[in-house]
Design a protein that fits this description.
The protein is α+β, with helices and mostly antiparallel strands and about 240 residues long. It contains nine helices and six strands. The chain has helices at about 5-20, 25-35, 55-60, 85-95, 130-150, 155-160, 160-165, 185-200, 210-240, and strands at about 40, 50, 65-70, 95-100, 105-110, 115-120. Strand 1 (about 40) and strand 2 form a beta hairpin. Helix 5 (about 130-150) packs parallel to helix 8, helix 5 (about 130-150) packs antiparallel against helix 9 and helix 7 runs antiparallel to helix 8.
């Protein structure tokens, strides 16, 4: 099973790493762009045109940016969001975003063909960012509960890829992460990423769930894991050096 971090998680981690001196500007840009053709930012203060990501990182730091804080909301769960309303709405629509603490700016990714265009808004850091230790414990509890429920639902029959992914959880995901990240943060990012992939795989289609009742039961089993995995990723990206 392959896992990749969403663009906003990559930006949050690598902007913070660069500001902390744990990565060069080129390394940060390359890690955020990954396999995409290019990344640009529109809406930066005093800039009417789109700005290449490598220049945008410098501008965000010049605005006082100290770290990137990931937002991964879901319906009814505004995880990482604190307004204003316009920024919140765009992040909810995109499913992800970054708030740059110190600059009080937020960025939202939008895929344009093989490239990514980020829109910049005024934004505030959420008053409560999940604690990595609590998020890790919550994720492991949710994973245990979800695994038991999926076994009861005969996951191997209706989605064998999910069963394989569950067996593969002990391996760390192959992710490009800052070298200075604390081992605990690396493990939390890896487990959170793999769990989010499991949720996505399991919800792709109805598979062998031939009744609406079975499909609803599957979703009910997966929602706690989705919530915990999003919290885990937000926590690890907010405190990547906390060991």
């Amino acid at each position: 099973m392959s896992s990749t971090l969403p663009p906003s998680a990559r930006l949050a981690l690598w902007f913070s790493a660069w500001v902390e001196g744990g990565a060069s500007l080129d390394e940060a840009r390359d890690a955020v762009v990954g396999d995409d053709a290019s990344h640009h930012v529109v809406g930066l203060p005093d800039h009417d045109d789109a700005v290449p990501l490598i220049l945008a990182l410098g501008l965000l730091r010049a605005e006082g940016g100290r770290r990137g804080v990931l937002a991964l909301p879901a319906p009814g769960d505004p995880l990482g969001l604190a307004g204003p309303a316009g920024f919140n709405a765009e992040v909810v629509d995109a499913g992800e975003g970054v708030v740059v603490e110190g600059a009080e700016l937020g960025l939202v990714p939008h895929r344009v063909g093989a490239a990514v265009q980020w829109t910049c808004h005024d934004a505030r850091v959420a008053a409560h960012v999940p604690d990595p230790g609590e998020a890790d414990s919550g994720l492991r509890r949710a994973l245990l509960g979800t695994t038991e429920q999926l076994a009861d639902l005969d996951v191997a029959r209706w989605r064998p890829e999910v069963a394989d992914a569950l067996l593969d959880l002990r391996r760390e995901a192959d992710l490009v992460l800052p070298r200075a990240m604390a081992p605990r943060a690396v493990r939390l990012v890896s487990l959170s990423s793999r769990c989010r992939t499991i949720v996505e795989l399991a919800l792709e289609d109805d598979g062998g769930s031939v009744t609406a009742l079975e499909a609803d039961a599957r979703r009910a089993a997966l929602l706690p894991l989705d919530h915990a995995a999003r919290r885990g990723l937000v926590a690890a990206c907010a405190y990547p050096w906390q060991g």
